Amino acid sequence: AAKERGKNTYQFYTAHLMERSARKMELENDLRKALIKQELQVYYQPQIDLQTGVVIGMEALLRWPHEKYGFISPLEFIPIAEETGLIVPLGEWVLRRACQQNKQWQEEGMACIPVAVNLSARQMQEENFIDMIIRVLHETELKPQFLDLEITESMVQDIENSTVILHKLKDLGVKLSIDDFGTGYSSLSYLKHLPIDKIKIDKSFVDDIIHHENQGAIVKTIIDMGHNLQFKVIAEGIEKEEQVQFLMEYGCIMGQGYFFSPPLHSKEMKKFLSQDKEVLERT
Ligand code: C2E
Ligand code: MG
Ligand code: MG
Ligand code: MG
C-alpha cells in the first residue's frame, strides 16, 4: 500500500509539475506577443508625504491583462521574463512609458515629482545598460532627477560591478532606491558607501508595527539608521492609519500603500494628481 501511495504521490507531482510548466510556457509565449502588441500597461502608485498627505512621487508597476487569465501578477510573470531574457526589452518598455508619462504630466501642469521604476538584475548586467538609460532619458526629454531607479539589496551584492554601475547612474543625476529593504542579507552599513538616495522599508516590517508585540522595533531601528546614514526612508505597504501614526512617531515621513491608494491606471493617477494640485492651489 505504501508503495502504491508513493506511486500516486509521484504521479500527482509529475502531473502538477507538467501543468505548471505548461502554464509557464504558455505565459512565456503570450508575454512575448503582449509586448509586441503593446498589451501591457503601466500603473502608478502614489507615494505620500505622511505629514501633509501630498503626493511626492509615484512607482510604476507593470500590469498584464491576459485575455484568458485576467490580470496576471508581476510576481508570476516578472520571473518568467527574467529567465527568458524578455525582461530586457520589457524593462526598457516600462522605463520609456514611465518617463514619457511623467514628462507629459509635468507639461500638463501637474506637480513635478519623480517616477520610480523597478529594475531587474538581468537588465543591469546588459553591456549597454547605462546607454539605454541615457537614450530613454534623452528620447523622452525627462530630466534625470525625475527618474528614481529601484534596485534590491541582492542586486547590489550579486552583480559583479554593481558599485561602478550605481556610480555611473548617480553621475547621470537619477535617483537610486533600495527596494524591499530588510528582506535581503545586506546591512545598512554595507550600503553606506553606495550612492543611494533612499531605502524602502519592506511591507513585512510595516506589518509588524501592528501585528507584533515589539511594535515595530525593527522599523524604528531601520528608520534611525537610515537617517543617520543620510538616506531618505519610505515605508512600503501601509494599509492602516495606525501604521501611519507609528511611522511618523518614528520619524519616517514618506509612505506608500493601499491606505493611501492602490496602483492606479494612468487616467486615475492623473485624477489623483489633479486633486492634489487643487488642494495645493487653494492653500
Ligand atoms: P515592489 O517593487 O516591491 O512593488 C510593491 C508591490 O506591493 C506592488 O505589487 C504593489 O501593488 C504592492 N503594494 C503596494 N501597497 C500595498 C499594500 O498596502 N498592501 C499590499 N498587500 N500590497 C501593496 P505588484 O504591483 O504586484 O508588484 C510586485 C513586484 O513585481 C514588485 O514589487 C516588483 O518587484 C515587481 N515588478 C512590478 N513591476 C515591475 C517592473 O516594471 N519591472 C520589474 N523588474 N519588476 C516589477
Ligand atoms: Mg518597487
Ligand atoms: Mg518593494
Ligand atoms: Mg520588489
From TrEMBL:
The keyword Chloroplast does not apply. Residues 24-277 form the EAL domain. The keyword GTP-binding does not apply. Keywords: Membrane, Transmembrane, Transmembrane helix. This is EAL domain-containing protein. The chain holds residues 460 to 742 of 742 of the full protein.
